[in-house]
Each structure stands twice: as C-alpha cells, then as structure tokens.
Design goal:
Length: about 250
C-alpha cells in the first residue's frame, strides 16, 4: 500500500511538473516585496560560548511546529566529553530531562563542551541532487527548502545528508529540516534559535553584506566547517571547533 501511494504521488507530480515554479514560490511566507537575489544567508557558531541550555532547540520546536518527541529536531546540541585516554563520548542534549555525565567518572574527564548543529545549508547540497521531484531546492538567497506539496516521502534526501539534519515528519510524511526560519528572515527577523540564545553563540547574517555581524564574525575568527572533505561547501561555520567534532 505504501509503494502504491508513493508511485501515485510521483506520477501526479510528473504530470504537473509544469507548475513547479508556481508551487515553489507559494508556501514559505515571504512578503511580496522581498527580493531573494539581494541576499545570501549564512550562520556562524561560537562553540566556546555555547552553554548547552537547549533554549535554541525549544524555540525551534515552538516556532516551526517540530514534533515534540525527542528524536525529531531541526536543530540540536551535542555534548562532547573528552576522556583522559582520548576517547570522545558524544550525547545529544535533551532540554526536557535532567542531565548527567552518564557513566563517565569525573576523574576521567579531560574536558567537555557543547556543539550546536543544524542543516548546513550547503552550496553544493547532496540532498538537492538526489531528490527525484525537485521538492528540495535552493533559493536565490542560498537557503535549502523542502516543498512539502511536492515531496513524496522517498527519504532519498534524508539518506544523502551527511550531517543527519533531516527527518521524515510523522504527520505530513514529508522531509523536514532547518530553514533558517525562512518565514522570519524574509521579514528582517532573526531565526528563532539565534534570537533566544542567552550567550549569542549563534550569529546569523547576510554573507554579502559588509555591515552584517556574520561578516565581522568571519573576519575576526579562524573558522571551520563540518566534514570539509565532502566538498558540500556548508554555509554554517564554527569558531573554536575541537578536532573531535564530526
């Protein structure tokens, strides 16, 4: 039955492929006067400022109607515990439950730190390349979006993403991910995760604007991206990133 529904949606979309332009510009809440060609967005993360409070995760779920279950995320925070023997223990922070250092003894800990993660909004996105119906696409302002009216739930993009930044929505049965809060940034507002961060660990801005805080962040810090060897060209950059982070 699942296969029949899958191919039914696929055939319907192929038949209506001439409407793709209309559908894409229909569902993301940007104002009519907004010109995406005048912007190109990115994000910076200052790892040494993240305190692992999880407010970004909660704000994202509230703003974007992400399912409340702890295994659905558009953004998440990982806690890295580096042991004295060199082993790295990584755990996803769940802000709804109390935290502990699990089975790692305090005397065995060399250092700990938190790393926020999200869709890297790649300039060379594998998710876009594998989508058979062009439901996943890049906007003129550099944001990767998913058109749920076109998505057939094949999960190809979820498997192709090397950062684990996508999931299949349990209600819509379509792929979901971080959009930089596209409905907000096109109205000159910050993404929800950036707005609520108490330490300003996340910096959002237009990479082409000399007045953008992101431009200053890039100029003042030595930056790294996740998995640079994959040549996906992420637009999310990290400062003070430990070599253990993958």
């Amino acid at each position: 039955m699942e296969r029949r529904r899958f191919f039914g949606k696929l055939l319907a979309l192929v038949a209506s492929s001439g409407l793709i332009g209309t559908i894409r510009r229909k569902s993301f809440g940007e104002p009519k006067e907004y010109d995406p060609t005048q912007h190109y967005y990115g994000m910076g993360v200052q790892v040494d400022k993240c305190i692992g409070c999880g407010r970004c995760v909660e704000a994202c779920k509230e703003e974007n109607n992400v399912p409340r279950e702890p295994f659905f995320f558009r953004t998440w925070v990982e806690r890295y515990t580096i042991k004295r023997d060199g082993e790295a223990v990584v755990k996803n922070i769940d802000p709804t439950i109390s935290r502990s250092l699990d089975a790692v003894s305090e005397k065995d800990i060399l250092r700990t730190f938190f790393v926020p993660k999200l869709c890297n909004q790649c300039d060379n996105p594998p998710c876009v390349q594998v989508c058979p119906v062009s439901a996943t696409f890049m906007t003129d302002d550099g944001v990767i979006l998913v058109d749920e009216e076109r998505c057939i739930g094949c999960r190809y993009c979820i498997q192709a993403c090397p950062y684990g930044a996508r999931y299949l929505h349990p209600v819509t049965h379509t792929a979901d991910k971080c959009t930089f809060c596209y409905h907000r940034i096109t109205q000159n507002l910050l993404p929800a995760c950036v707005e609520v961060c108490p330490t300003q660990a996340r910096i959002f801005g237009d990479v082409r604007s000399t007045a953008s805080p992101l431009t200053r962040f890039k100029r003042m810090n030595k930056l790294h991206v996740l998995k640079p060897f994959l040549n996906t060209e992420p637009k999310v950059a990290y400062s003070d990133l430990d070599g253990e982070v993958r």
